[in-house]
């Protein structure tokens, strides 16, 4: 449990719950599921004591549900947003990804998410989460660093505190969505490897189970982004209904739209990856079908060449006492020459039709040799 009070352009961490809300600021309460489960009446009691607002029991149950999807709801006194974030440690640093073994890089790491619930009041923000969160810890550290750096413009966002509780919530959402954007590189790297393996003619592709699991993870990411986008869309629509002048110029609306645009980028990337995997699978089966057709075509041509030879051999192998060329001294050579002539003619025919022709490798342009 962490208390942070923001007022007069500074943020400070409190050791205990404040006696009252600041007149020119707000309070942020960061609560874990374990803390809320140990004392179920603490959260609704402290919120009612500080703001006079009673949280609905159904909303409290949703906040404690670890499987709850992204969701938005509001009352006359507060807003509730459930947002699923990436679990800690799911995005690995680049150095660790490069150090992984080749067989491990062929597997797509499972995307694990956890919900975080925001209760947004006029001068109070409550976050209820399960387990540690790098996103929330980084935002809290930036707010505390802003007190140390003051209004130094060289520090950028570190010296600017969110003026309202809603802006603080959007700042945390932005950090969480940015962690989803970090998934693009490892996902693209693994799927590119699968695509190269699918289209490699030198060895058959056998990692179908991992490919299926990867498609399932992409579909999970797509459904997750759709739920997040729908929840933030409802939140934006309600804000526009309650604040008509916000559509003209409002920093809160701009930041909310930016978070939604980031979610759309993750969603579009997941859809592109899924589409590219499906295209690679179709190309894989098309290439196999083409290779099979080529082999069958060559075998058919070879069988067609030997069919007349088998016919001639069968005719002269019949047990008749009187047959042409049977008693001739040159009968064998005439028959063998005829068979060879027929085979050569049919071989030339199939070769001119490019049925037995070997596929030629693409020629490298001269300018490419010069570049090498």
Helices and strands in order, then pairings?
Blueprint: E1 2-7, E2 10-14, E3 25-32, H1 33-38, H2 42-51, H3 57-63, E4 71-74, E5 79-86, H4 94-99, H5 102-105, E6 113-120, E7 124-129, H6 134-149, H7 165-181, H8 184-198, H9 208-242, H10 251-316, H11 331-352, H12 366-371
Parallel strand pairs: 3-7
Antiparallel strand pairs: 1-2, 1-3, 4-5, 5-6, 6-7
Describe what you observe in this structure.
Helix 7 (165-181) runs parallel beside helix 10 (251-316), helix 8 (184-198) packs parallel to helix 10 and helix 9 (208-242) runs antiparallel to helix 10. Mean pLDDT is 79; it is low at 89-107, 153-159 and 367-372. A seven-stranded mixed sheet has the order 2-1-3-7-6-5-4, with helices on both faces. The chain has helices at residues 33-38, 42-51, 57-63, 94-99, 102-105, 134-149, 165-181, 184-198, 208-242, 251-316, 331-352, 366-371, and strands spanning 2-7, 10-14, 25-32, 71-74, 79-86, 113-120, 124-129. The protein has twelve helices and seven strands. It is an alpha+beta fold and 372 residues long.
């Amino acid at each position: 449990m962490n208390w942070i009070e923001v007022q007069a352009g500074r943020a400070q961490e409190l050791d205990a719950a404040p006696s009252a809300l600041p007149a020119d600021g707000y309070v942020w309460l960061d609560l874990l599921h374990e803390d809320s489960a140990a004392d179920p009446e603490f959260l609704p009691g402290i919120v009612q004591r500080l703001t006079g607002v009673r949280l609905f029991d159904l909303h409290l149950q949703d906040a404690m549900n670890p499987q709850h999807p992204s969701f938005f709801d509001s009352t006359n006194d507060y807003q509730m947003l459930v947002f699923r974030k990436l679990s800690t440690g799911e995005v690995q640093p680049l150095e660790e990804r490069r150090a992984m073994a080749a067989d491990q890089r062929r597997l797509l790491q499972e995307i694990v998410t956890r919900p975080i619930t925001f209760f947004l009041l006029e001068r109070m923000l409550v976050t209820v989460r399960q387990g540690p969160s790098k996103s929330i810890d980084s935002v809290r550290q930036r707010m505390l660093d802003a007190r140390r750096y003051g209004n130094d413009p060289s520090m950028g966002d570190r010296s600017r505190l969110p003026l309202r509780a809603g802006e603080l919530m959007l700042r945390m959402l932005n950090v969480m969505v940015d962690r989803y954007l970090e998934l693009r590189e490892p996902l693209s790297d693994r799927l590119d490897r699968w695509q190269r393996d699918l289209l490699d003619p030198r060895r058959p592709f056998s990692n179908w189970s991992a490919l299926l699991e990867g498609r399932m993870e992409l579909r999970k990411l797509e459904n997750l982004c759709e739920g997040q986008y729908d929840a933030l869309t409802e939140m934006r629509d309600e804000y526009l209904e309650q604040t008509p002048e916000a559509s003209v110029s409002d920093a809160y609306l701009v930041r909310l739209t930016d978070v939604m645009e980031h979610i759309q980028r993750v969603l579009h990337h997941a859809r592109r990856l899924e589409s590219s995997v499906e295209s690679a699978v179709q190309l894989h089966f098309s290439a196999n079908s083409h290779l099979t057709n080529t082999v069958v075509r060559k075998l058919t041509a070879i069988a067609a060449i030997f069919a007349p030879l088998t016919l001639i051999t069968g005719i002269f192998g019949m047990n008749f006492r009187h047959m042409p060329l049977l008693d001739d001294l040159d009968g064998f050579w005439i028959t063998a020459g005829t068979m060879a002539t027929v085979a050569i003619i049919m071989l030339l025919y199939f070769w001119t039709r490019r049925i037995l022709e070997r596929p030629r490798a693409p020629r490298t342009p001269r300018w490419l040799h010069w570049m090498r």
